């Protein structure tokens, strides 16, 4: 830490022409304006998502706990990283001193790690919910959820501490990029490759494996259900009307619960794919066009990278009616109407029902015992 304290603030006096010098002023101005818009959308969208999930009990399930962590990481990215990106586009260099030159990339890489690990934890939650439902109540207890979230933050930032103190690479001004990034230390070591493998490749592979398994389980389940329905129809003459009606109602409830879980799973997949779409272009640009022959390609990559911090709330609105209702309630409804979101009528309208999820894919809620007084009269199940 002594190196950090002694790090001087005279970077701007020794800067060299950066890759930004190869871009036209109009292109850089456009990039600065778009980054500013992304920052505003990201700040408001992520903050609104956190407020909506905290205020509306029926969307405060296990996945929502990880989504709140993801939103906080994206909010911090917009608040603490994007202003310096706008400044970089505008001034074409770094002019904020040496201490910030270390802290800003530390925050940038840390928030990216938290975002991807949060997506991985949400995907793992979906996988256990669908493929190993009997484990769900044991795995997703409150203290386990808290430990998972704390781990994602401590791991993402903790693995960068050696770089921050200069013993495994260092955060410093990169004259070629015109900004602060990870550079080799005095011994020529850098944490970039290891960080890319541990914090990006491994979680991405985990996510892909989980989704492959999820799709297989869902496909097999649908085949079994179709076979079960055909068997029921073929033997319908042997059943009395009341038994047939009860069976039909149960099948409809199970189908509704499975459909709701599948919608959430598809939303998480969209979040992961958007993460890849936002991060791959700038990675490809740095590798395929290291000498910046195509400036537009690089600017587009930067803007997509920054857009990753604001795109998730848009996905929630487009793909999930429950989140749309929660947003509307957080924006427009007084507290008395927000409590109305705990009613069963609202649940059924948007696909939630405790009876449904107990008979199929249980929707474990962080506040279930408080939100639904009938829970104490329900048959005993796994502890939550």
TrEMBL record:
Domain named G-protein coupled receptors family 1 profile: residues: 45-316
Biased composition (Basic and acidic residues): 243-254
Keyword rRNA-binding: no
Subcellular location per the Swiss-Prot or TrEMBL entry: Cell membrane
Family annotation (Pfam families): 7tm_1 (PF00001)
SUPFAM superfamilies in UniProt: Family A G protein-coupled receptor-like
Cited InterPro entries: GPCR_Rhodpsn, GPCR_Rhodpsn_7TM
CDD domains attached to this UniProt entry: 7tmA_GPR84-like
Keywords tagged on the record: Cell membrane, G-protein coupled receptor, Membrane, Receptor, Transducer, Transmembrane, Transmembrane helix
Membrane topology, record value: Multi-pass membrane protein
Family to which the UniProt record says this protein belongs: Belongs to the G-protein coupled receptor 1 family.
PANTHER family from the UniProt entry: B2 BRADYKININ RECEPTOR/ANGIOTENSIN II RECEPTOR, G-PROTEIN COUPLED RECEPTOR MOODY
Protein name per its UniProtKB record: G-protein coupled receptors family 1 profile domain-containing protein
Organism: Plutella xylostella (Diamondback moth)
């Amino acid at each position: 830490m002594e190196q950090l304290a002694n790090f001087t603030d005279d970077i701007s006096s020794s800067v060299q022409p950066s890759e930004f010098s190869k871009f036209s002023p109009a292109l850089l101005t456009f990039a600065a304006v778009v980054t500013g818009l992304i920052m505003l959308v990201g700040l408001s969208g992520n903050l609104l998502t956190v407020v909506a999930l905290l205020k509306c009990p029926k969307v405060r399930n296990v996945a929502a706990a990880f989504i709140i962590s993801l939103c906080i990481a994206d909010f911090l990215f917009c608040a603490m990283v994007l202003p310096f990106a706008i400044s970089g586009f505008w001034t074409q260099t770094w002019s904020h001193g040496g201490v910030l030159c270390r802290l800003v990339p530390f925050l940038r890489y840390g928030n990216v790690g938290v975002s991807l690990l949060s997506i991985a934890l949400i995907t793992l939650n979906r996988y256990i919910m669908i493929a190993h439902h009997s484990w769900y109540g044991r795995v997703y207890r409150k203290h386990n959820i808290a430990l998972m979230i704390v781990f994602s933050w401590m791991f993402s930032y903790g693995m960068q501490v050696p770089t921050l103190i200069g013993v495994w690479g260092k955060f410093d001004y990169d004259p070629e990029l015109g900004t602060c990034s990870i550079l080799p230390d005095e011994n020529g070591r850098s944490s970039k490759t290891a960080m890319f493998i541990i914090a990006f490749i491994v979680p991405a592979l985990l996510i892909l494996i989980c989704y492959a398994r999820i799709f297989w389980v869902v496909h097999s389940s649908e085949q079994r259900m179709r076979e079960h329905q055909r068997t029921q129809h073929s033997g319908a003459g042997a059943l009395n009307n009341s038994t047939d009606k009860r069976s039909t109602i149960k099948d409809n409830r199970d189908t509704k619960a499975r459909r709701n879980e599948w919608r959430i799973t598809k939303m998480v997949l969209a979040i992961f794919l958007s993460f890849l779409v936002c991060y791959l272009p700038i990675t490809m640009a740095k590798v395929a066009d290291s000498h910046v022959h195509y400036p537009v390609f690089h600017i587009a990559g930067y803007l997509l990278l920054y857009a990753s911090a604001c795109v998730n709330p848009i996905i929630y609105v487009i793909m999930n009616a429950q989140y749309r209702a929660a947003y509307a309630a957080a924006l427009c409804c007084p507290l008395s109407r927000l409590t109305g979101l705990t009613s069963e009528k609202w649940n059924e309208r948007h696909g939630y029902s405790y009876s449904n999820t107990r008979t199929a894919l249980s929707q474990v809620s962080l506040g279930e015992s408080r939100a639904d007084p009938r829970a104490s009269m329900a048959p005993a199940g796994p502890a939550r």
